[in-house]
């Protein structure tokens, strides 16, 4: 049985490697549109992590597939990755000087002989406090390019660290993959990470 990470995110790949796991990274185009506007942030990341894990199913027969999704919620709107620099500036203007929440959903699908044996999902939320930012600081940060592939338009693990006052909850959840949640999902389906080391 092989471990498959259905994600194009370099952060998620680094985090799995950090655990000493051997895995096959794959990246499929998944429709991330949410049509049901009444879905909670929890339900959205759960649903999208399921879609991402399912997309990889077609190419494997015996595998443990990981899918994940991260969004930012400030109590008003749900923020994904910005579509351009203008939107990144808008998001950071909205988030600065207050608290927001980062939600990451993870789904594990166990495939045996091409059939789904187990499918488990979980969600973690981390509270993040961003300091007050000057317009010029936001513009300078966006020009670094760092925000462009990140939910909420910042990366806590990079230059974005200088924008964050404090967090409450799992740091890795903000970066895109709560490792303690991943461990818990392995346990729920009676799998050990050691099998993939
Ligand atoms: C808030 C925040 C998000 N992020 C990243 C994590 C995710 O990679 C990304 C959110 O987008 P996602 O759609 O969750 O993931 P992705 O498009 O990067 O990869 P894939 O769908 O193929 O798995 O934002 C950071 O790296 N640092 C942060 O501080």
TrEMBL record:
GO terms for cellular component: cytoplasm. It is an enzyme of class 3 (hydrolase). Its cofactor is a divalent metal cation. The active site is at residue 69. It is found in: Cytoplasm. The record marks 11, 70, 157 as: Important for substrate specificity. Gene3D superfamilies: 3.90.950.10. It catalyses: dTTP + H2O = dTMP + diphosphate + H(+); UTP + H2O = UMP + diphosphate + H(+). Its main location: cytoplasm. One of its GO terms (biological process) is nucleotide metabolic process. Keywords: Cytoplasm, Hydrolase, Nucleotide metabolism. The keyword Repeat does not apply. One of its GO terms (molecular function) is UTP diphosphatase activity. The keyword Hydrolase applies. Coiled coil: none annotated. Its EC number is 3.6.1.9. Belongs to the Maf family. YhdE subfamily. Nucleoside triphosphate pyrophosphatase that hydrolyzes dTTP and UTP. May have a dual role in cell division arrest and in preventing the incorporation of modified nucleotides into cellular nucleic acids. This is dTTP/UTP pyrophosphatase.
């Amino acid at each position: 049985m092989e471990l498959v990470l259905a994600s194009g995110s370099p952060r998620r790949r680094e985090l799995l490697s950090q655990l000493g796991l051997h895995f096959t990274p794959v990246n499929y185009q998944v429709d991330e549109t949410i049509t049901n506007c009444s879905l909670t942030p929890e339900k959205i990341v759960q649903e999208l992590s399921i879609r991402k894990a399912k997309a990889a199913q077609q190419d494997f027969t015996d595998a443990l597939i990981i899918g994940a999704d991260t969004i930012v919620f400030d109590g008003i709107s749900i923020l994904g990755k910005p579509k351009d620099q203008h939107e990144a500036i808008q998001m950071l203007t909205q988030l600065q000087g207050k608290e927001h929440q980062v939600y990451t959903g993870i789904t594990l699908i166990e495939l045996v002989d091409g059939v789904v044996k187990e499918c488990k999902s979980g969600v973690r939320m981390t509270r993040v406090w961003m300091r007050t930012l000057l317009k010029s600081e936001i513009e300078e940060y966006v020009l670094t390019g760092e925000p462009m592939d990140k939910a909420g338009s910042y990366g806590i693990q990079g230059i974005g660290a200088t924008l964050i006052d404090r967090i409450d909850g799992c740091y890795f959840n903000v970066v895109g993959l709560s490792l303690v949640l991943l461990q818990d999902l392995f346990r729920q389906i009676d799998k050990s990470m050691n099998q993939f080391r």
